[in-house]
Design goal:
InterPro entries: ARM-like, ARM-type_fold, PP2A_Regulatory_Subunit_A
Number of strands: 0
Distance between the termini: 57 Å
Low-confidence stretches: none
Largest sheet: none
Mean pLDDT: 89
GO molecular function: protein phosphatase regulator activity
CATH topology of one domain: Leucine-rich Repeat Variant
Strand content: under 5%
Organism: Haliaeetus albicilla
Keywords: Repeat
Protein name: PP4R1 phosphatase
Oligomer: single chain
Shape: elongated
Amino acid sequence: DIIPQPLLDQYLSMTDPARAQTVDTEIAKHCAYSLPGVALTLGRQNWHCLKDTYETLASDVQWKVRRTLAFSIHELAVILGDQLTAADLVPIFNGFLKDLDEVRIGVLKHLYDFLKLLHADKRREYLYQLQEFVVTDNSRNWRFRYELAEQLILILELYSPNDVYDYLRHIALTLCSDKVSEVRWISFKLVVAILQKFYANNANALGLNFINELVVRFRHCSKWVGRQAFAFICQVGMFSLCVSTLYKC
């Protein structure tokens, strides 16, 4: 009743390997790119028409096809709602997390957008996995770690102060010692955001412990780059405090 059945059948047949050989070698990629739009048109009540096609594309041998789905999985989650997302998209999402960096960057760029759609208990399951993003196939891929720091700043609001202290704090400290200055700079903002999270939620003890750790790790570091990092963290923190004070005034 929404679109002609022959048209839908034609779209679903785009995952047929035979068509890739005779029509277009990138036809599966085109299919993956259009899938969120088709899902939106059909509505979540007709997701069963696309489910098998989506799973086929998610396991396609071409990483470009999987990458395309990874970049749009958060949009599909909004269309399907929390129940279908938990049942059908979370397993695909978990697979993308273990894929090539070219695919993982797709879920990383919209990590906050996807996690905020999950229930709190399901969201907590990803706390330990977040540190896996620090390791990449190519250590020179510093933009991957930069994107991780940016996403973590947003993700802080999704977790409790204790979860932030137990899991995200370690990632932030690791990124603050990155070999690339751009990654360190965004990580200093992440550290300040974590401190703001603690004190905004009256977790003063956690905030004090974190400050003491920063002092030991960077202020008293034997290398100048560590001491410089501490100065930059203080600089970012003072700037954030001034902006916050002016905003309140």
